[in-house]
C-alpha cells in the first residue's frame, strides 16, 4: 500500500441514490484499478484524495469512514458532512440487506434429509426405494430453485434453452466439485468478462490479419431499440468474414 501524496483532490458530495453493491456500497467511492480474479485484494484509488490502496473492502470502509488502526490511512478530504452521508449510506444498505433476508419466500419444496451419522454406505448393490425417493425430492427442489431464480429476476424463459447454461449444469453434475460456488457479481462483471473478451479477441485476430492484404469495408446501418433510441451498428466486411465492431448510440 502506498502512502498518500501531497496532491489533493476536491471532494464532492458522496451520497448516491443507488449503490452498485448494497453489501459493499463504498466501492462506488473509489476507483478500482485491478481486481484479483480469485476474489483476493483489490487495487483502488480514492476518488476524493490521491491515495492508492491494495486491500479488501474492509479497509476501503475504514479509509472513507475514518476508522483508525485498521492498517490503512484515513481520508483527510472527507468532511464531517460527507462522513455523515457515507455512514447513512452504509446503514441504509445494511437495512436493505436485512430487509431482503426477511422477505425471503419459502420454497414449495424441501431437500431430502441427510444422514447425520457420517457413515458412508457402500454403493454396491441396488439402490433402495428410500434413496430413490430422496433423489427425486432433491431433483424437484433443484428445479424449484432454478425456476425461482428465473421468476425473481425476470429472466426470459427462452434463456433456459441457452446451450452454455445447460452445458454448465451438465458439467457440474458430471464432476466432483465439493464446495463450489458460482461466480459472484464482481467476478462476472470484471475478471471473467475481461478473460472472455481477451479470448474472443484472440479468435478474431486471424480475421483481422487478412485486412491489410485483402482489404476491408466498414459498413453501418441504423435502427431504433424498443425505447425508440437510435442506434448505429458498425460491421467490418472482408473476404474472410464479417465482424461486428461496435454499436453507437
From TrEMBL:
Signal peptide: none annotated. InterPro entries: DUF659 (IPR007021). This is DUF659 domain-containing protein. PANTHER family: OS06G0658400 PROTEIN, OSJNBA0013A04.12 PROTEIN. It comes from the Eukaryota. Residues 183-247 form the DUF659 domain. The lineage of its organism: Eukaryota, Viridiplantae, Streptophyta, Embryophyta, Tracheophyta. Residues 105-124 are annotated as: Disordered. It comes from Eleusine coracana subsp. coracana. Transmembrane segments: none annotated.
Amino acid at each position: 500500500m502506498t502512502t498518500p501524496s501531497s496532491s489533493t483532490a476536491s471532494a464532492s458530495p458522496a451520497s448516491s441514490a443507488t449503490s452498485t453493491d448494497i453489501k459493499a456500497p463504498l466501492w462506488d467511492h473509489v476507483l478500482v484499478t485491478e481486481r484479483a480474479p480469485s476474489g483476493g485484494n483489490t487495487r483502488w484509488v480514492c476518488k476524493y484524495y490521491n491515495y492508492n490502496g491494495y486491500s479488501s473492502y474492509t479497509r476501503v470502509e475504514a479509509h472513507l469512514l475514518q476508522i483508525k488502526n485498521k492498517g490503512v490511512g484515513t481520508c483527510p478530504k472527507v468532511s464531517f458532512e460527507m462522513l455523515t452521508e457515507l455512514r447513512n449510506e452504509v446503514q441504509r444498505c445494511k437495512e436493505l440487506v436485512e430487509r431482503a433476508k426477511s422477505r425471503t419466500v419459502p420454497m414449495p419444496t424441501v431437500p431430502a434429509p441427510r444422514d447425520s451419522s457420517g457413515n458412508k454406505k457402500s454403493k454396491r448393490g441396488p439402490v433402495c426405494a428410500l434413496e430413490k425417493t430422496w433423489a427425486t425430492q432433491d431433483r424437484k427442489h433443484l428445479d424449484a430453485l432454478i425456476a425461482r431464480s428465473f421468476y425473481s429476476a425476470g429472466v426470459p424463459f427462452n434463456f433456459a434453452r441457452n446451450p452454455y447454461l445447460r452445458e454448465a449444469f451438465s458439467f457440474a453434475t458430471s464432476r466432483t466439485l465439493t464446495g463450489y460456488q458460482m461466480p459472484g457479481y464482481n467476478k462476472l462483471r470484471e475478471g471473467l468478462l475481461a478473460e472472455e473478451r481477451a479470448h474472443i479477441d484472440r479468435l478474431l485476430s486471424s480475421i483481422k490479419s487478412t485486412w491489410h492484404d485483402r482489404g476491408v469495408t466498414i459498413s453501418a446501418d441504423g435502427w431504433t431499440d424498443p425505447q425508440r433510441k437510435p442506434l448505429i451498428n458498425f460491421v467490418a466486411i472482408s473476404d474472410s468474414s464479417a465482424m461486428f465492431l461496435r454499436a453507437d448510440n
